[in-house]
Specification:
six-stranded mixed β-sheet, 29% strand, elongated, 30% helix, alpha/beta, five-stranded antiparallel β-sheet
């Protein structure tokens, strides 16, 4: 009988702890990692997973801050696990592997660190320290955004008109690119980044898909999938499919899928034009 992921209860929940999931198909490897993490007072292990599918399920169930992820696992390997997770759900990722040939690909997937087995307490501690800094940055930014949003409603009682970006500043290959938003055909999530597609070029931008959507004028850009935003001006046609979803066809010929959860956005667009 295959193993299922194990939930590890916390007797004294603490919001300041880094909530972590261990994903490794070898039981002894999971046990060793759990023992090493026992010496890290900031870390709370909330689940252990023996395969890729259960890792995806555990991430969605526990919403961890950090994922210690083996690469070679049943069902889905480590990279396929990350492909299944939206940018909004993505924790800080530390790969743990016995093979060094995956290191470059791991960092291309924006992993925070890559631990080569067998690693020791000091090497793990260094990775945890880095994760702790990134987790705090994220939590501090979320808190700041909530406070600023609250303060903006105090005083006149009126919400200020939202301010949307008109162009983005992107650092790529040693250059700084100023990208006007009307040049963007579609945007897709890429781990802790988004990929901005202009048709002939694409750029990685350090932002989550949800946060970039808040920076865009909803009359110009609509979200059609949890990991996809499209420029309304670039839409050539909408093709209904049997499941009640749509295929969005751009003027460039690119076809994008609209999931059922976001089809109302397209239906609203159709309503405004008829």
């Amino acid at each position: 009988m295959p193993e299922s992921f194990v939930s590890i209860p916390c007797k004294q929940p603490n919001g300041s702890l880094i909530r972590a999931i261990i994903a490794d198909d070898e039981r002894l490897a999971r046990e060793k990692l759990r023992i090493l993490l026992g010496s890290e007072p900031e870390v709370q292990v909330v689940a252990e997973c023996p395969n890729g599918r259960q890792t995806v399920s555990a991430i969605r169930s526990f919403q961890p801050d950090m994922l210690l992820l083996d690469i070679q696992m049943p069902d889905l390997d480590g990279f396929e696990v990350l492909n299944e997770i939206s940018s909004d759900e993505m924790p800080q990722v530390i790969f743990t592997s016995a093979y060094d040939q995956y290191a470059i690909r791991a960092f291309e997937a924006h992993a925070l660190d890559y631990l080569l087995k067998p690693f020791d307490q000091d090497r793990l501690h260094a990775a945890i320290e880095r994760a702790s800094v990134e987790v705090r940055k994220s939590k501090d930014q979320d808190l700041t955004n909530r406070v600023l949003a609250l303060l903006s409603t105090v005083g006149s009682g009126k919400r200020p008109a939202p301010q949307f970006d008109e162009r983005l500043t992107i650092r790529t290959n040693g250059r700084v690119v100023f990208l006007n938003l009307e040049e963007i055909h579609w945007i897709e999530a890429a781990a802790n980044y988004v990929r901005l597609n202009t048709g002939k070029d694409s750029y990685l931008f350090r932002e989550t898909i949800s946060r970039i959507s808040e920076r865009l004028n909803p009359s110009q850009f609509i979200r059609i999938h949890r990991s996809m935003i499209v420029n309304v001006a670039g839409i050539k046609e909408l093709i209904p499919v049997n499941s009640g979803e749509y295929v969005v066809v751009l003027h460039s010929g690119k076809e994008l899928s609209c999931s059922r959860g976001y089809r109302s956005n397209l239906q609203d667009l159709i309503g405004k034009n008829f």
